[in-house]
Design brief:
Layout (H helix, E strand, L loop, with lengths): L7 H14 L6 H12 L6 H11 L5 H13 L4 E3 L7 E3 L6 E5 L5 E4 L2 H4 L5 H6 L8 E4 L2 H8 L1
Parallel strand pairs: 3-5
Antiparallel strand pairs: 1-2, 3-4
Helix pairs in contact: 1-2, 2-3, 2-4, 3-4
């Protein structure tokens, strides 16, 4: 299981606090969307969240779900996971961590590594850009896909 802030209840409290700070109404739809990402283990896309939320809120549109996810990301409640041409995926884990992405099935797994946390940004990049975060993305084939090819 993923390790989030301290608890999911703390995350929901932070959600309410951030919404108030940003002047954003705390609607049942927004709460449901945030909870769905928070409870997801697999860095879901907007489409996946939309299909799940539509069961609870049948009148909700894909555009509303997508815009809400992007807004929550801008507020710092979600991260947009880097990808290789895939659809945007969302991650509620705001702790410093890195990702492994399977090139075959697209699965994204969080992992923690202190030496990666301490990677030094090259000086020429520091001079040219403002670096806000350093995150390592490893790509390869996951254990499930390896086992499928061996069967």
């Amino acid at each position: 299981m993923k390790e989030y802030r301290s608890t999911k209840e703390d995350s929901l409290e932070e959600f309410v606090k951030k919404c108030k700070e940003c002047g954003l109404k705390i609607t049942p739809q927004r709460i449901s969307i945030y909870k769905e990402v928070l409870n997801s283990e697999n860095h879901p896309s907007a489409e996946i969240i939309y299909r799940r939320i539509k069961r609870i809120h049948p009148g909700i549109s894909f555009d509303t779900v997508n815009r809400t996810l992007l807004t929550l990301s801008e507020m710092g409640l979600l991260e947009i996971v880097e990808g290789s041409g895939d659809v945007r995926r969302f991650d509620p884990n705001n702790k410093n961590h890195h990702h492994f992405r399977c090139k075959k099935c697209g699965k994204i797994v969080d992992f923690y590594n202190e030496s990666y946390d301490k990677l030094e940004v090259p000086d020429y990049l520091k001079k040219k850009f403002i670096i806000n975060k350093v995150r390592v993305l490893l790509e390869g084939i996951c254990d499930n896909c390896i086992n499928k090819t061996q069967d």
